[in-house]
Specification:
Blueprint lengths: L28 E6 L2 H5 L5 H17 E11 L3 H13 L3 E6 L17 E6 L11 E3 L9 E2 L3 H23 L6 E6 L6 E9 L11 E6 L7 H4 L1 H11 L3 E7 L8 H13 L14 E3 L7 E9 L3 E9 L5 E7 L8 E7 L10 H12 L7 E3 L7 H9 L14 E6 L5 H9 L3 E7 L2 H10 L8 E5 L2 H5 L8 E5 L4 H12 L4 E6 L6 E6 L8 H15 L20 E2 L1
Parallel strand pairs: 1-2, 3-5, 9-10, 9-11, 17-18, 18-19
Antiparallel strand pairs: 2-4, 3-4, 5-6, 7-8, 8-10, 12-13, 13-14, 14-15, 15-16, 20-22, 21-22, 21-23
Helix pairs in contact: 2-3, 3-4
């Protein structure tokens, strides 16, 4: 090698020696380049192997000048990563890690599954009390490096990139695999900014223009079935007609200026998840529902001692309606309570002249959740709530709906919409709600228009205690959510021990099943007449001067009720 380079590179020499014990003087070099030697030496975590690696790194430190750099190319296997970061950080060196960018001309199918990293260790004088410099460098141009507070944090960032590379490789190798989800975090705060759901539809016949698309879920709609469930997203992917659809959820506490700004921010990152075979210079479309990024306004933040942190937020739903939601952050994909918002000038149930209808519709279209508003107390957000109301028609006396006295116990208050509906539409009802969490009651009163009176009371207690007070001729209505058929069978069997007669109504497209339980088997209703009875109840509830949700048809909620 010396002879081969003698003429063109006279100052370059090749020397044969032990890298762990060289003959160079101290501080001889300004830089040491390692293009794989450490990986070749540190093949395992045996004591002898680790000792050899320690000698190598110590020798590198000896021959480097202060301010010099050790530049190491590595696959950063777990034990190699730990050795590099730990040994040099303990010596007070600056540690910066770069990920080698992949060639844009490289075919997706031939990419090596593991990323390559370059470790840049800078030798500095040890200064007691001086903070460690541990940085993960950006993986794209214009990005910012991330300063880590500990070696574990730095190593975790490397491992995250390795996992991401393996996910990409899996997606490239098997396009029929189950849905893959991953979070894209803000480089400064570390908070999740986007959640990606990669949905493949291998049954769609490929064409030049249907390989890949991005679908942006409007803010506040990520909990809807179509966007918030794997089954729903598969249906969405099939309907838009792309072989791979990247469904993107936006997060609260993040600022999004426009669809164009999101497209600019994500354009490079989303292409990393494109399917193999995507034609060069293919324009990847960005899709959405409604053509914009939606509206989300966080109205309040709080913390419950029982359930943790929560938010109350106003969002725009499908179309022009606005909704207020209570969401516990421990389970952000589930809306705990929801109410529909109306303009404050809406007069409940007053008949409008025909010429005023367009004016009222315009008011709804322009509703801004930041302005004054009222709750639509005729609106029940959950189909199982509607089924529960319909089940009250199973009480023997249909006239109970209007003015005859009944007592109703609601276990679990939430935003209070179910309790308020019974109070407002069943004029003879004495409603008692049991809620175990005082924070929920506070939210209901402050943000969901809930209020108490002589016919509506709330007990802060365990609801199981109050269930024992059910009247002998009453009805127990239970919302059962159970995906395990064996467990569900055991639950129903246990309920049968107390309630011999149980009707069940399955909620379409949901796991929920509503059980209508009677304490005496002799209280059986003719199932063929149940829909007619429910229709009669609805007529009594639809009173002049009261709003009514036209989508709520009591008879339809009991169309497939059965006795179990």
């Amino acid at each position: 090698m010396n002879e081969r380079n003698a003429s063109q590179r006279p100052n370059m020499t090749y020397q044969l020696m032990d890298a762990t014990k060289t003959t160079f003087t101290d501080s001889h070099f300004q830089a040491v380049l390692d293009k794989g030697t450490l990986d070749a030496i540190l093949t395992d975590t045996e004591a002898g192997t680790l000792e050899t690696a320690t000698k190598l790194l110590t020798e590198i430190g000896r021959v480097l000048q202060c301010g010099g750099r050790y530049i190491c190319v590595s696959l950063a296997q777990a034990h190699v990563l730990e050795k590099l970061v730990t040994q040099f950080s303990q010596g007070g060196w600056m540690v910066r890690i770069h990920q080698v960018s992949e060639s844009s001309s490289k075919q997706s199918g031939s990419q090596f599954p593991l990323p390559v990293f370059v470790f840049v260790m800078t030798k500095v004088k040890e200064m007691p009390g001086f903070p460690l410099v541990l940085e993960m460098m950006p993986d794209d141009e214009g990005g910012k490096s991330v300063r880590c507070g500990s070696t574990n944090e730095l190593m975790d960032m490397v491992k995250e990139r390795q996992r991401y590379a393996l996910i990409r490789n899996r997606l490239n190798q098997n396009q029929g695999s189950p849905e893959v989800s991953l979070d894209l975090c803000d480089g400064v705060s570390g908070r999740t900014r986007y959640t990606f759901h990669v949905v493949d539809s291998p049954t769609i016949r490929p064409s030049h223009s249907n390989h890949f698309a991005i679908f942006i879920i409007p803010q506040g709609r990520e909990t809807e079935w179509l966007f918030g469930s794997e089954t729903g997203r598969r249906q969405l992917a099939g309907s838009v007609g792309f072989r791979r659809l990247l469904v993107v959820a936006l997060h609260r506490d993040q600022q999004y200026d426009s669809m164009e700004a999101i497209q600019s921010e994500l354009s490079a990152k989303v292409l990393e998840l494109a399917p193999p075979g995507l034609p060069d210079n293919q324009q990847v479309p960005f899709l959405s529902a409604g053509g914009d990024i939606g509206v989300r306004t966080v109205q309040y933040r709080g913390r419950s001692e029982m359930s943790g942190e929560y938010v109350v937020e106003d969002v725009r739903g499908d179309g022009t309606s606005y909704f207020r939601r209570l969401i516990f952050l421990s389970n952000q994909n589930v809306v705990q309570s929801e109410a529909r918002l109306l303009p404050s000038n809406t007069q409940s149930g007053q008949k409008k002249k025909r010429k005023d209808k367009k004016k009222q519709q315009k008011a709804n279209d322009n509703l801004d959740p930041k302005t004054t508003h009222v709750m639509d107390k005729s609106y029940l957000c959950c189909e199982h709530h509607k089924a529960m109301i319909s089940g009250l028609s199973l009480l023997h006396n249909p006239g109970v709906a209007s003015e005859q006295h009944i007592s109703v116990l609601v276990v679990g208050l939430g935003g209070g919409s179910l309790s308020l509906f019974i109070h407002d539409y069943f004029l003879g009802a004495q409603v008692e709600a049991v809620e175990i969490d005082s924070a929920v009651l506070d939210v209901a009163c402050r943000w969901f228009g809930f209020s108490l009176d002589d016919r509506l009371k709330v007990h802060l207690a365990d609801g199981l205690v109050h269930i024992n007070d059910l009247a002998g001729k009453g009805i127990f209505i239970l919302n059962l959510v159970c995906r395990d058929p064996d467990l569900k069978g055991k639950v129903i069997k246990t309920i049968h021990e107390v309630f011999p007669l149980i009707y069940v109504q399955k909620i379409e497209d949901e796991v929920n099943e509503i059980l209508f339980c009677r304490p005496h088997s002799g209280q059986t209703h003719d199932i063929s007449n149940i829909k007619e009875t429910a229709g009669g109840l609805e007529k009594q509830l639809r009173r002049p001067g009261m709003l009514w949700d036209e989508s709520f048809v009591l008879a339809d909620m009991l169309k497939s009720v059965q006795i179990v």
